[in-house]
Amino acid sequence: MAIPPPPAPMLMRQRKRYFQQIEYNETIQRMLYEVNTAKEKEAERLADMKEQKQQIIANKLKPKGIALNAGSLRFNKKRHVYSAPAFS
What we know:
Order of helices and strands: HHEE
Helix content: 55-70%
Number of domains: 1
């Protein structure tokens, strides 16, 4: 069995096109990495904002005394306050 001859060297334009395609590939991979990184950072930022909102809501003033024991509060629209139902 004979060994096949090595391939002929590339012509100038083939070589130029080959290296240009390699350069395009590197550019596309770099840009994809940047886009994916930006997506991840945006998702992290949104998650942090959501967590911060949840913490703000959790740290709001809580009802105390009778209102806390009553369990159900009514909102007075005129005074913008919560009040507990009267006990009989």
